[in-house]
Amino acid sequence: DAQESRGLGDVYKRQRHSVLSWRSPTVRTSNFDKIKKYFSGSKKPLIQEIVREPTAGGVIFRRNKKGEAEFLLYQDARDRWTIPKGHIEPGETAQVTARREIGEETGLKKIELHGWLGKVNFRYRRIDKLVLMTTQVYLVKALDPNEKLQKEEWMNGLKWFSFHEALDEVEYEDIGKLILLAMKRIRQENL
Predict the structure, then answer these.
(1) How many CA atoms lie within 13 A of 58 on its CB side?
(2) pTM
(3) Nearest C-alpha neighbor of 63 from the set 112, 119, 116, 118
């Protein structure tokens, strides 16, 4: 019996060896066929450069006629709801950029910054570049509840949302967390 089981073990080892052997052209070809898509014919060019882009923006709120806080979000070209933000120009501070970008993207000029809320890190690919974007986010109050909104052409929407609607609609989890933090500050500081 011991000799018979040893013989079966030898057969098993030989079978296993022949299946896993790289010398076997059929195994190598089938394995190569499975993985060659990862090495050839890639549609995207390789990343050649990492670019850092500092940006600034704001979680904008107002009080409606009932005294409830509403939050302003815009809908980008890919239908994602988010906050106004943009690139920090040379010589600008993050606060100056936040004011400028809010004015450009929403039409709001009568605003008041109520401090820094936090920062959000995004990364995305732009052809052969990996873009690392850091957005400094401020709590911003719209002072005139009747000031007319004016969206930029590339936006699909610009709208005031209730607190809960804003949390439901916002695309990015980190922005949602900043809206939560904004609401906490609005309540604590009675803004």
Answers:
(1) 30
(2) 0.74
(3) 112
The 3-class secondary structure across the chain, one letter per residue, is CHHHHHHHHHHHHHHHHHHHCCCCHHHHHHHHHHHHHHCCCCCCCCCCEEEEEEEEEEEEEEECCCCCEEEEEEECCCCCEECCEEECCCCCCHHHHHHHHHHHHHCCCCEEEEEEEEEEEEEEEECCEEEEEEEEEEEEEECCCCCCCCCCCCCCEEEEEEHHHHHHHECCHHHHHHHHHHHHHHHHCCC
Predicted confidence (pLDDT) per residue in 99-156, tens digit? 999 999 999 999 999 999 999 998 988 888 999 999 999 999 999 988 999 989 999 9
Instruction: Compute the distance between CA of residue 103 and CA of residue 85 in angstroms, rounded to an integer.
Output: 10
